[in-house]
Amino acid sequence: MPDEARLVETAAGLVPQGEGWFVVNVADAPWLRNDYFGARTSFEAGGRLTRELTDLEQYSFPQVGVTVYVLPSGRPSTMYHAESDQESFLVLQGECLLIVEGQERRLRAWDFFYCAPQTKHSFVGAGDGPCVIVMVGARTDDGTIVYARDETALKHGAGVEQETPSPDEAYAPFPHWRIGRPDGWDDLPWS
Questions:
Q1: Are the CB atoms for 14 and 182 separated by under 8 Å?
Q2: What are phi and psi of 189, to 5 degrees?
Q3: pLDDT of 122-181, one tens digit each?
Q4: E-only strand ranges, the chain
């Protein structure tokens, strides 16, 4: 029987340490922010979070990733890309522009996007305030990603000039993620 994972209070929020189940409120979870891309929590101890908080042990969910993303108006969530694993997205608040296979689709609260494997996509915040999206993605050991050049994505600041499978190359021009909550924290649904 799985044990309850220990939650550790950090400068970023409550972070799970070790395997097992846990419960944490979005408002208390560890948040990262980026001046270009917005803010997110993935509820786990991985990547940038463990590089910033070196006392933490890295722990990522082994099968499914879950992220709550706060996307400012006019900003992209990611560089336009396609992954070999499926993803799903649910807009909880606000509006965004989905760029999918070179097309623009306007999404608003409660719109759901199923992203089949190898579907090229990105989101750009739209409307008067932030857009809150729940993002869910499968994780496999042999998963791949490619950042594809696309004129529509480039027009919205979400595209790469040259196709690459390297996240380091795709994100090289942008600031790094750092610990911090999204702008407008008090106006978000969990505050």
A1: no
A2: -60, -25
A3: 999 999 999 999 999 999 999 999 999 999 999 999 999 999 999 999 999 999 999 999
A4: 6-9, 14-17, 32-34, 38-41, 64-71, 81-83, 87-93, 95-100, 103-108, 112-115, 121-126, 131-138, 145-147, 178-179
